[in-house]
Design a protein that fits this description.
Structural class: mainly alpha
Shape: elongated
Order of helices and strands: HHHHHHHHH
Helix content: over 70%
Distance between the termini: 78 Å
Number of strands: 0
Number of helices: 9
Radius of gyration: 24 Å
């Protein structure tokens, strides 16, 4: 392996002015992984800003965003149960899992706020249970459809030509389990604990914003 080659080269004494430098596929893969990690940080920031734009609440956006890493538990376990190598496909799969978990979280919390503001459902356990039950079918259907599409790649194994697709499918499939549990259990619990008053804050911000908007008056014409 490339790591073993690097370790052995580190023990070799080269003449002054000479040094080892690994090239080829290994170097390209390292560069791709670094670029993907940088891209992942940009994606994480974009996810957080999207949540804030959807909720108009820093508290709810931070709450859901900090809960997202729990969705990667299944991905980590799937990687550990497989080849235990964090490859380029593994990183792509983890970013995909974060996106799926963020989408489910946004839809669920938005439905809670809809029940509070539009249907006048009082905040409490009944609101959380109703919202989770009404979003159960869409979340499960999305998860099952994605999982069924990935099963052939997982069953095929790490055969030549599937060096990226196979680990990516394994990571996503494992992450779908924990991201679904996150959406149906952890996020409702967190919303019940910290979501009280979020709809009222949103309403106050909207009223404050409208009050600052210049109003047209007949004598201004």
């Amino acid at each position: 392996m490339a790591s073993e080659v690097e370790a052995r080269l580190g023990k070799v004494q080269f003449p002054i002015g000479y040094y080892p430098h690994l090239l080829g596929e290994f170097k390209e893969r390292q560069a791709a992984q670094r670029n993907l990690l940088n891209f992942a940080m940009v994606v994480a920031a974009a996810i957080f800003l999207t949540m804030h734009a959807s909720f108009r609440s820093w508290r709810l956006a931070s709450l859901i965003f900090l809960a997202l890493p729990a969705a990667l538990i299944g991905s980590a376990l799937a990687t550990f149960a497989g080849d235990r190598v964090v490859s380029l496909g593994t990183l792509v799969g983890m970013i995909t899992v974060l996106g799926i978990a963020a989408r489910n979280g946004i839809l669920l919390v938005q439905h809670y706020r809809h029940l509070e503001r539009v249907e006048a459902q009082p905040f409490g356990v009944e609101l959380v249970l109703r919202g989770a039950s009404e979003r159960l079918s869409p979340i499960l259907m999305t998860t099952l459809c994605t999982a069924l599409a990935l099963v052939p790649l997982v069953v095929a194994g790490s055969i030549p030509g599937h060096e990226i697709e196979h680990p990516m499918a394994v990571v996503i499939l494992g992450g779908l389990v924990t991201s679904t549990l996150l959406s149906l259990f952890l996020i409702p619990i967190l919303y019940l604990r910290f979501g009280a008053g979020s709809s009222r804050e949103d309403e106050e911000l909207r009223i404050e914003g409208s009050s600052k908007t210049p109003q047209w008056r007949p004598h201004d014409a």
